[in-house]
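Workshop exercise sheet. Pairs work together: one partner reads the sequence aloud, the other fills in the structure field after running the prediction. Swap roles for the next sheet.
Pair: D.N. / O.F.
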Amino acid sequence: MTLAVALLALVVSVVGAIYAKQSAEAAGRSATAAEDSAKAAASSAAFDAREDHRARTPDIVVEVEQKAEPKGDSVIYLVRNGPQDLDSVVIHRPETTSHIRYEVAATGETGWGDEADLGALRLGQIARFTLALGVEKTLPDFRAGIVCCAGEDEWHLTRLLDTPRKKPPSTVW
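Structure field:
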């Protein structure tokens, strides 16, 4: 009888060990599923934050105030802001394929350089910057970088600038 009880105890122990192993595996799968769910939630939240940031991208319009004469060496551009107040707007000098350095300055300021700090720009407000054109007869296309900030948010934009000079008068032969 002692042998039968010992065998029965052994069988019960083996069955218990099997169930314990299965329970541990199920708990591991549950923990992995919980981790995967947490990662998916974090990824979804990050995606939502990026989409929200993208949806609030400022609508900055840059247009020439008045075209320079054919030999003009600088031109003023207007910068219009919408649809939100901005704490800071900085215009960066255009990068061109000619690699000539065309500097910028906030209109009315004397410091020419790689960037023009226009300061805070409220909804619908207009600011100005001046672009140095030099004396080259033909000019490249100008694409200016713009960095806008509102609170903790920051946007890096690029705008193609209007042609800065008037066309020279035609010569009739």
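Discussion prompt: The two ends are 129 Å apart (CA to CA). What would you look at next?
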